[in-house]
Amino acid sequence: MKNEDASGTDAGQLQAWRFVKEATVLREALLDAQFELADRSNRAVLILLNGADGAGKGQVLNRLHEWLDPRTLATLAYDITDRRDQRRPPAWPFWRDLPQRGRIGVMIGSWYHTILLHRATGGADEEIFHARIEEANRIESMLDAERVTLLKFWLQLSDSKNVGTKIRTGAPPGSRYNPLVREWVEIDTKKERKRLVRAARELILHTADSSTPWHIVEAEDPLARDLEVGRRLLDTLQAAARWQPQGRSKAPARPRRATSGKPVLPTLDLSQTLDKDSYETELADAQARIFTATQSKAFRNRALIVAFEGNDAAGKGGTIRRLRSALNPVHMRVHPIGAPSDEERARPFLWRFWHQVPLRGNTAIYDRSWYGRVLVERVEGFAAPAEWTRAYGEINDFEAQLTRAGYIVHKFWLAIDEEEQLRRFEERKETPHKRFKITDEDWRNRAKWPLYAAAVEDMVALTSTEAEPWTLVESNSKRFSRVKVLRSLADRLEDEL
Amino acid sequence: MKNEDASGTDAGQLQAWRFVKEATVLREALLDAQFELADRSNRAVLILLNGADGAGKGQVLNRLHEWLDPRTLATLAYDITDRRDQRRPPAWPFWRDLPQRGRIGVMIGSWYHTILLHRATGGADEEIFHARIEEANRIESMLDAERVTLLKFWLQLSDSKNVGTKIRTGAPPGSRYNPLVREWVEIDTKKERKRLVRAARELILHTADSSTPWHIVEAEDPLARDLEVGRRLLDTLQAAARWQPQGRSKAPARPRRATSGKPVLPTLDLSQTLDKDSYETELADAQARIFTATQSKAFRNRALIVAFEGNDAAGKGGTIRRLRSALNPVHMRVHPIGAPSDEERARPFLWRFWHQVPLRGNTAIYDRSWYGRVLVERVEGFAAPAEWTRAYGEINDFEAQLTRAGYIVHKFWLAIDEEEQLRRFEERKETPHKRFKITDEDWRNRAKWPLYAAAVEDMVALTSTEAEPWTLVESNSKRFSRVKVLRSLADRLEDEL
Question: Minimal Cα distance from B433: which residue of A?
Answer without folding.
Answer: A28
